[in-house]
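Here is the promised in-class demo. Please do not try to memorize the tokens; focus on the logic of going from shape to residues.
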């Protein structure tokens, strides 16, 4: 499949979440679409599992595909209905007519109103106000003082929320047509879309959270719809996090018009209902910036920690068994050990309550992933962190071993 990805230099400021529209069309961000390039390909894992099409159809290498012969994500034919079934307490039915019925509530708690409370919203904003890419570093301001002042309250709130708003490990067992390799390819593609539109790293982390949570409470999602779910997740995350999110037609363009605007809007609607409109999910990115505000590190160590955290998004197993706060702690330790041979400072032990012994399993898994990153077929994250604005940390040789292994 050919993917057209666009570049949108729209984010002029990353310190405010207020979404002020441009005063005129001339002020609106200009979109320049890069040339088409192949992003997704065949998976040997699919062939091993005997999931190739009965007629042995090949992936299309043409950028223009008619509706009658159009191929979708990973070579699966598109159908007129969604073939999405939701089990347990939440049920979604999508008919060919497009009508949908949602009942029940997957996330059952009595704090729904509290999550939508403006005060808590502002509290979350304090934690994400420092979540700027390293290239957008600015002089210290009052927001950093606020983070320091309210760091313990922010951390406590995020730790409570992460337990409610996290995906379920092993959810692929409920999706016979979806493999871990497909998830890796989808995340790799989403990283490229985020890069081409110059979106924030937090937008990527949120999108993967939405994707995994959706798949956690649904069953039998067709592989031809997996990219549609991922695109809808990124669309929602961009609306939540970005000042000027890309327009709907840009997301359609990013999929090379594999899906229509109507299909994307319908999937966005379904995803929001399945997630019960709970979009303020804590991410590894948020926890990591909070840790580094409490115990600052060098620019190289900071970017290396962000790189390790982003690599963890690729793999469902083993990283979904760890909470985002634990992955952040592991990424912090891996970065500081690689750069300065230090690990977990006493200040962060006191702040988080995590001991080094508790972090070791996650740190070990991150270290293995860091070592294997260079040889993986999917290189979008590694290519991103090869740039000078990220201190070229993906080119740093990982430590051969850890001191406690």
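The designed amino acids, position by position:
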């Amino acid at each position: 499949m050919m993917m057209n990805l666009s570049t949108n230099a729209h984010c002029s400021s990353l310190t405010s979440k207020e979404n002020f529209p441009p005063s005129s069309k001339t002020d609106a961000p200009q979109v320049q679409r890069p040339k088409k390039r192949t992003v997704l390909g065949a998976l040997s894992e699919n062939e091993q599992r005997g999931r190739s099409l009965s007629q042995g159809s090949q992936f299309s290498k043409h950028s223009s595909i008619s509706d009658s012969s159009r191929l979708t994500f990973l070579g699966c034919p598109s159908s007129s209905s969604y073939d999405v079934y939701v089990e347990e307490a939440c049920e979604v039915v999508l008919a060919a007519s497009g009508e949908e019925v949602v009942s029940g509530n997957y996330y059952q708690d009595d704090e729904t109103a509290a999550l939508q409370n403006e005060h808590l919203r502002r509290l979350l904003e304090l934690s994400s106000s420092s979540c700027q890419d390293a290239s957008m570093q600015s002089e210290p301001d009052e927001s950093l003082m606020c983070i320091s002042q309210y760091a313990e309250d922010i951390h406590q709130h995020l730790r409570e929320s992460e337990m409610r708003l996290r995906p379920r490990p092993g959810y692929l067992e409920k999706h016979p047509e979806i493999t871990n390799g497909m998830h890796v390819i989808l995340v790799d593609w989403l990283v490229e879309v985020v890069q081409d539109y110059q979106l924030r790293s937090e937008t990527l982390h949120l999108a993967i959270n939405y994707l995994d949570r959706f798949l956690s409470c649904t069953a039998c999602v067709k592989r031809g719809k997996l990219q549609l779910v991922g695109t809808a997740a990124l669309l929602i995350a961009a609306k939540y996090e970005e000042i000027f999110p890309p327009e709907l037609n840009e997301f359609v363009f990013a999929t090379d018009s594999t899906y229509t605007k109507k299909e994307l809007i319908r999937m966005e609607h379904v995803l929001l209902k399945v997630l019960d409109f709970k979009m303020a999910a804590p991410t590894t990115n948020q926890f990591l910036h909070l840790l580094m505000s409490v115990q600052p590190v060098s620019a190289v160590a900071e970017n290396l920690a962000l790189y390790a955290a982003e690599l963890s998004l690729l793999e469902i197993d083993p990283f979904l068994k760890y909470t985002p706060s634990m992955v952040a702690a592991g990424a912090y330790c891996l970065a500081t050990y690689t750069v300065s041979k230090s690990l977990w400072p006493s200040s962060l032990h006191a702040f988080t309550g995590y001991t080094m012994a508790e972090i070791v399993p996650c740190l070990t898994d991150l270290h293995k992933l860091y070592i294997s990153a260079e040889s993986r077929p999917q290189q979008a994250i590694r290519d991103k962190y090869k740039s000078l604005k990220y201190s070229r940390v993906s080119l740093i040789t990982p430590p051969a071993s850890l001191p406690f292994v």
